[in-house]
Amino acid sequence: MRTKIAAGNWKMNKNYQEGLNLVLDIQKNTQPSDVLVILATPFLQLKEAIHITRYNPHIKIAAQNCHHEEKGAYTGEVSANMLAAINVEYVIIGHSERRQYNRESNEIIAQKVNAALKAGLKPIFCCGESLEIRNEGWQERFVNNQIERGLLHLSAEELESVIIAYEPIWAIGTGLTASPEQAQDMHFSIRKKISEEKGEKLAQNMSILYGGSVKPNNATQLFSQKDVDGGLVGGASLKASTFIPIIQALENDPT
Ligand code: PEP
């Protein structure tokens, strides 16, 4: 069974107290439902956010990154084991901002996925094409290649712990959104690739999220697509007043 997921990626926003206030606000304004809410806070708030939500099975906390090595001389980095030790359950890996600004290659991303799984974390694996690639029409090949190089070395059993987030780079933080049809086409293509390589049962059970300017006014249409199982939300996850309606749109989605 696929899990419906509304994940918020706060990026480098919210100081310590602002972040905790947002966790409290979201927790206060959400009811138990079939939607899993995941909040990817800065490292700073992880421990306290986990404490605040400890009795709430519908809200989980994620890190936005981890290092691919277990420990060592990597100044400024945080390992997957360190995250697991404070009960973090999810970690975003391969976000396009990290691919771009931190030059993370598919190979490093694959190693991060391995490190996360080894530590018992569930990776939220991001993929997505640039506008140039979409304009040239080979977006599906590009994303399939990211999936192949970042994920397909895993066994079907390991992949059961992975969430995929399709995030076209041209739609992230730009106010441009993929049309529901564009999102559906790509999600279908990703699921087909997983099915061909690892089996239909796994492919049908994997949650594939759409990310790229999801807002309260477009969430319902995006989530209504058959292969869109939820969203990874940046800007609109920074306020309860914009994130809650997105969670509700997913709760009300019958697909
Ligand atoms: C993101 O960074 O994962 C994202 C989708 O951002 P936004 O919703 O702001 O486009």
Structure description:
By secondary structure, this protein is α/β, with parallel strands linked by helices. It has one domain: TIM Barrel (Alpha-Beta Barrel), CATH 3.20.20. It has 12 helices and 8 strands. Strands 1-2-3-4-5-6-7-8 form an 8-stranded parallel barrel, surrounded by 5 helices. Helix 5 packs across helix 7 and helix 7 packs across helix 9. The longest helix is centred in the C-terminal third of the chain and has 19 residues. The protein is globular, with a radius of gyration of 17 Å. The structure holds phosphoenolpyruvate (PEP).
Low-confidence stretches: none
CATH topology: TIM Barrel
Percent of sequence in beta strands: 15-25%
Instruction: Name the hetero compounds present.
Output: phosphoenolpyruvate
Q: Can I get a quick summary?
A:
By secondary structure, the chain is of the alpha/beta class. It contains twelve helices and eight strands.
Please describe the structure with a list of short key phrases separated by commas or semicolons:
single chain, 8-stranded parallel β-barrel, alpha/beta, 8 strands, 12 helices, TIM Barrel, globular, 255 residues, binds phosphoenolpyruvate
Topology of this structure?
Blueprint: E1 4-9, H1 16-28, E2 35-40, H2 46-52, E3 59-63, H3 80-85, E4 90-93, H4 96-101, H5 106-118, E5 122-127, H6 131-136, H7 139-151, H8 156-159, E6 163-166, H9 180-198, H10 200-205, E7 208-211, H11 219-223, E8 230-233, H12 240-251
Parallel strand pairs: 1-2, 1-8, 2-3, 3-4, 4-5, 5-6, 6-7, 7-8
Helix pairs in contact: 5-7, 7-9
The chain binds phosphoenolpyruvate.
Phosphoenolpyruvate (PEP) binds at residues 9, 167, 172-173, 211-214, 232-236.
